[in-house]
Amino acid sequence: MATVLLVLLGITLAQWQTRRGDQKQAIENRLLQREADATVKLGGALQDVDQIEFRHMALRGEFIAGWPVYLDNRPLNGVAGFYVLMPFKLAASDTGVDSYVLVARGWLPRDPADRSKLPSYPTPAGTVEIEGLVRRDFGHVLQLGDAGPLRPQAIVQNLGIDEFAAASKFRLQPFVIEQTSNADDHLLRDWPRPSLGIEKHRGYAFQWYALAVMALIFFVVTGFRRGSENTNKPAQSG
Fold this sequence. Notes:
Layout: H1 2-35, E1 40-41, H2 49-52, E2 56-63, E3 69-71, E4 81-90, E5 100-109, E6 128-135, E7 155-156, H3 161-168, E8 172-179, H4 198-232
Parallel strand pairs: 1-2, 3-7, 5-8
Antiparallel strand pairs: 2-4, 2-6, 3-4, 4-5, 6-8
Helix pairs in contact: 1-4
């Protein structure tokens, strides 16, 4: 019974890791395809994220400096830190309706003594032009405790676009932008590639398959030895 459970566990986890690797590979393929496309200028009309995910976008408008939010638990090169998120009001378009997009401006280190203390950083005033990569969301990390109501200057571990739109009352595009263009604002923009970890998942899958095979071999070998021992035992006289 223990052998059967180990074999099933190994195969199940190996298949799960294989699927995760396949998903990351599909993302990598789409990234490579869309990285070669020309940069698109983002207007005020709401876009379909499926059509533009991983495209390079050019944006013209202004940052809403009064609504920053900080994503916690985003280390960079082993250093604890935050992603600085800020809504960006897109320049007036033919729609006549204000439109916004949530921009990840960059990364800031966390104060090791006081988590709530953030380094200062400048925000450009007025109309600016930036470029960035379209992402469906910011990913998800383990949620520790209750995040509480979302407000400006909040430090959160996870953030959904709908959640931010409801709290800020901004008409947001259904995606986020990772800013890639340079700016003199002390923020780092070394964004992790969304397909990162393909080889890791492949390696884990191999390990789990190996565990299943080893469990099966151990069962066969020990069973064969026990069978041989029972065969070689002298018969007891009555």
